[in-house]
Amino acid sequence: MEAKFLASALSFLSIFLAIYAQSLDKLVPNYDNAMHQMKFYDIRSPLVLSCNVKDGTPGGVLIWKKNGTAVTEVPSLRGRFKLIADENKFIIDKTDTNDDGKYSCEFDGESKEIEVIARVVVRVPSNTAVVEGEKMSVTCSVVGTKPELTWTFANVTLTNATDRFILKPDDNGVPNAILTLDNVTLDDRGEYKCIGRNAANVHGGNTTAPASDVTTVRVKGKFAALWPFLGICAEVLILCIIILIYEKRRNKSELEESDTDPQEQ
Would you indicate the residue range of the signal peptide (predicted)? Predict the structure, then answer.
């Protein structure tokens, strides 16, 4: 109980000191998490960074940088951002994955860093079909800053130690992005969920929920593909029998007609 109280007290003290230190600074960025100097954004949505200059600070020019380079000199940002000098803002109207990184605002010899983090987005196929006894493989496509992926099935978190499941990284090196399962059985049918998290979930409070997507695995029986073939064969056989019966009856009818024809005088 005492340890829990001490941890809460230290956390409160850290927040208080961060706010107090911020009150002494010339520059005040619009952090989403001031303690860790972080700003979060959704990919394809606007990113707005602001760096308020305290009243009474001597005049100067606010300079924006990304990873130590002026934003005007960053090739990936060229033509994609705007600066609003009167409001001390840096804006990207339509962001992409590569817009994350360490930004900074500089004014009159003082600099403040902003760790910009892209929230995670995950995608899996809506349906995955596999034949009983074969191998299943599902890839969770993910974008965002340093994503961490987990999989669940029937409310159980899957790991490499879970039954026959194997989790592997994708071509981009994202751990646990590929879920595989050998010798699939009918019991493996159901919904598999890929869940993505990163620092935005850890430090974003209730504002950032984990990203997730679900694929429904449908397992076909070993002989599932055989039944349609057998059905076609049966239809062909029945058709052949009908034709054979028809031909026999027609030939019999023709023979009877020939027997009843009047003989020539």
Answer: 1-21
The CATH code that applies to domain 6-118 is 2.60.40.10
Q: What is the dihedral of CA 68, 72, 73, 77, to 10 degrees?
A: 90
pLDDT at 249: 74
Q: What are the domain boundaries of the chain?
A: 6-118, 136-220
Residues 14-47: pLDDT tens digits? Answer: 554 445 444 557 889 999 999 999 999 999 999 9
CA distance 29 to 51: 4
Could you write out the DSSP letters of every residue in 201-229?
A: HHHSGGG-PPEEEEEEEEEEPTTTTHHHH
Burial class (CB in 10 A: 0-12, 13-18, 19+), 206: exposed
CB 47 within 8 A of CB 67: no
Cβ pair 103, 49 in contact under 8 A? yes
The structure's pTM equals 0.74
Helical H segments across the chain, by residue range: 2-24, 199-203, 226-260
CATH topology of domain 136-220: Immunoglobulin-like (2.60.40)
